[in-house]
Amino acid sequence: MAKPSSKLALSISRDIPFNKLVLSQSNVRRVKASVAIEELAEDIARRTLLQSLTVRSVLDDDGNDTGIYEIPAGGRRYRALELLVKKKRLARNAPIPCIVRTEVYEKAGGTILRDLFEPDEASHHQMSIFSALSIASSTSMPR
């Protein structure tokens, strides 16, 4: 008899106040976006946020949760929300739907996965991601 496979555990989904979110520097795209942030902000204002932000907990030097979350995936959506806050169309503490991740390589893996669904930008972006994965694995993995 075959052993039963382990159950799939999905990432936690929760609303996090906008003022507890910060953009991860590893998320900054190096390719000009096809849709302007202003247009995306207007779309969010009109139809709401259609896709949650992917976030990770920011830890202090002792490894304790700070209550702040960085965004390794969803930077353009964050910038659009930030614009809505600046225009006072969204409260600074408005609850933002987020997927909370804890995986070490999630930021790079998530970017590669996103690029599979955005092929027009993928070819310009993937080399930097594979390079980052290579560097990260060579510096943090035991030999």
> Whole-number radius of gyration?
17 Å
Report the top-level CATH class of the domain at 13-103.
Answer: Alpha Beta
Q: If classified by CATH, what would the architecture of the domain at 13-103 be?
A: Alpha-Beta Complex
Number of helices: 4
List the uncertain runs.
none
Defining traits:
143 residues; five-stranded mixed beta sheet; Conserved hypothetical protein from pyrococcus furiosus pfu- 392566-001, ParB domain; 4 helices; alpha/beta
Structural write-up:
Helix 1 crosses helix 2 (75-86). A 5-stranded mixed β-sheet has the order 1-5-3-4-2. Helix content is 40%, strand content 22%. It has helices spanning 37-47, 75-86, 106-117, 119-140, and strands at residues 12-17, 21-23, 53-59, 65-73, 95-101. The protein contains 4 helices and 5 strands. A hairpin with a 5-residue loop joins strand 3 (53-59) and strand 4 (65-73). With 143 residues, it is α/β, with parallel strands linked by helices. The chain has a domain at 13-103: Alpha-Beta Complex (Conserved hypothetical protein from pyrococcus furiosus pfu- 392566-001, ParB domain).
SSE topology:
Layout: E1 12-17, E2 21-23, H1 37-47, E3 53-59, E4 65-73, H2 75-86, E5 95-101, H3 106-117, H4 119-140
Parallel strand pairs: 2-4, 3-5
Antiparallel strand pairs: 1-5, 3-4
Helix pairs in contact: 1-2, 3-4
Could you give a short description of this structure?
The chain is an alpha/beta fold and about 140 residues long.
